[in-house]
Design goal:
The complex is a heterodimer of chains A (417) and B (64). With 417 residues, chain A is an alpha+beta fold. Chain A has helices at residues 34-41, 62-69, 79-82, 90-97, 99-102, 113-122, 127-132, 134-150, 157-162, 164-174, 181-191, 198-221, 227-234, 239-269, 272-280, 285-296, 328-331, 366-383, and strands spanning 45-49, 55-59, 74-75, 154-156, 304-307, 311-313, 316-318, 323-326, 388-389, 411-413. In chain A, a hairpin with a 2-residue loop joins β6 and β7 (316-318). A two-stranded antiparallel sheet of chain B has the order 1-4. Chain B has 64 residues and is an alpha+beta fold. The relative contact order of chain B is 0.35. The N and C termini of chain B lie close together (5 Å). The A-B interface holds A 69-70, 115, 118-119, 122-123, 125-128, 350-352, 356-360, 362-364, 366-367, 370 and B 11-15, 17-18, 21, 25-32, 49, 52-53, 55-57. Chain B: It comes from Actinokineospora fastidiosa.
Chain lengths: 417, 64
């Protein structure tokens, strides 16, 4: 059970202002790290000093996390932090703060700017629109399973299923040629490493921007029937805005669901009673998906906010200028909110988990993710009889080194037809 | 019981339309909440779930 990398001595700061490494090291694949559990026991809002000597207020309580995420006095503009980060060259700082770098990146904006951009997109991700995609998503899932069946009785579920399914879906939705996935998947994989240094962030960002700029220019000349073309035709976004928005949707649209499909399948295989319950009652799929989202909480490094004034949360005063990090894994297992929080229970009554966040930044693509997970998991269990791990569970490589948790690979086998 | 919906704070996450589709829908253009009607007694559990999960506090259930 490796996969964790040791943090090298480095001259420049990491981009993510992460918590100390033990907050990401796992002693079991599905439960929050021991260091995080100990921190949560200190209180729902408590200070952590990270390896670089900077302090982070870690919010581990469910109610407190909701309070922070729905209070826009906690700003999402993390450039406020970058601007005072030590170890950056002036050039790097200017680069990160430039219009080209940040245009349209509404994930790092506060209202009203955030609202303006988000409203251009919300109509494209409604429950109704996503339901219209169901038949096509089912087709994509079936094609991937057909390919796995044609290849024999074993496969790496991440490479053959969990990553391709959401990548194919988001590519089709955005109008990004799937054949070009090597470029954006490689950039995303490197960019999402927990200890990615700033210089590499800038290089990878440039590569992704070049990739998407080519596509945007092509669609300006010849618009197609896709989301990016729709934004070009129906909004007055400039090219920098279009490029950054499209890249955000592309990366957020495949890395997240891919890891929920991979880790979610792993969790079900390691909880045979839950797997059997879901197989026997496919109508539980809806609850099972919400429970896997809660139980696994793959966003394990943030979201982060900056306090724009002194704000009291859960009886603790957070001073203006503080970095505040929400711990989704801790909040989703807060014993003050959830009964028997450590149990994976596919029949658990749905509750307000924070897997998609909360407040104005709550995941734009959550209805798409739910459908992909529901169809993906249901069909996997129905079509691969005897699905099981092909290696001991402790040999499954965990993504403890990545901003989005999951498994790097999931070797599985199934019965011959 | 009366449901109120405030489109000025709604962020179009769609949880209400997902959980209580008889009572809530989403605007085609910006995804914000559309109130289809007041809930009957049968709809209340779904509406409570929607209110509980709404990320922006845009919907509210009140009265007795």
């Amino acid at each position: 059970m490796t996969g964790a990398t040791t943090t090298p001595d480095r001259a420049e700061p990491s981009f993510r202002l992460p918590l100390p490494r033990p907050f990401f090291d796992r002693d079991t694949p599905f439960d929050p790290p021991a260091a995080l559990r100990e921190q949560a026991a200190k209180g729902p809002v408590a200070e952590v000093t990270n390896g670089e000597g900077t302090k982070v207020w870690l919010v581990s309580g469910h109610a407190e996390a909701r309070a922070v995420l729905s209070d826009t006095r906690f700003s999402s503009d993390l450039r406020r932090l970058v601007s005072r980060m030590d170890g950056l060259t002036d050039e790097q700082r200017d680069d990160l703060m430039s219009e080209e770098s940040s245009a349209g990146s509404f994930i790092s904006m506060d209202p009203p700017d955030h609202t303006r951009y988000r409203k251009l997109l919300t109509g494209q991700f409604t429950v109704r629109r996503m339901r219209m995609l169901e038949p096509r998503i089912a087709e994509i899932v079936d094609e991937r399973i057909d390919a796995m069946l044609a290849g024999g009785t074993s496969a790496d579920l991440v490479a053959e299923f969990a990553l391709p399914v959401p990548s194919l879906v988001i590519c089709e939705l955005l109008g990004v040629p799937y054949e070009q996935r090597a470029e954006f998947q490689e950039c995303a994989a490197k960019l999402l490493a927990l200890d990615v240094p700033i210089s590499e962030v800038l290089t990878l960002r440039d590569r992704l921007q070049d990739f998407m700029r080519g596509l945007v220019l092509q669609k300006r000349r010849a618009p197609g029937d896709d989301l990016i073309s729709g934004l070009i035709t129906n909004s007055d976004l400039n090219d920098n805005e279009l490029v950054n928005i499209a890249n955000l949707l592309l990366i957020a649209g495949h890395e997240t669901t891919a890891n929920m499909l991979g880790l979610g399948t792993f969790a079900l295989l390691e909880h045979p009673e839950e797997l059997a319950a879901l197989r026997a009652n496919p109508e539980l799929a809806d609850r099972a998906v919400e429970e896997l989202l809660r139980h696994l909480s793959i966003i394990h490094a943030g979201p982060s906010r900056v306090a724009t004034e002194d704000i009291e949360v859960g009886g603790v005063l957070i001073p203006e200028g503080s970095t505040v990090m929400i711990s989704v894994p801790a909040a989703n297992r807060d014993p003050g909110h959830w009964a028997d929080p450590a149990a994976l229970d596919v029949a658990r009554e749905r509750g307000p988990h924070l897997a998609f966040g909360h407040g104005v930044h709550q995941c734009l693509g959550q209805q798409l993710a739910r459908i992909e997970m529901t169809i993906g998991l249901t069909k996997l269990l129905a079509r691969l009889p005897g699905l099981r791990l092909a290696v001991p569970a402790e040999d499954v490589p965990l993504r403890t080194d990545m901003a989005i948790y999951g498994v790097h690979a999931l070797p599985v086998a199934w019965d011959a037809p | 019981m009366t449901v109120r919906a405030d489109t000025s704070v709604c962020i179009g996450a769609g949880l209400c339309a997902l959980r209580a589709p008889k009572v809530f829908d989403q605007d085609e253009s910006d995804g914000t909440v559309v109130l289809l009607g007041q809930p009957g007694a049968d709809d209340l559990p779904a509406v409570r779930e929607a209110v509980d999960q709404c990320p922006s506090g845009a919907i509210e259930l009140s009265g007795d």
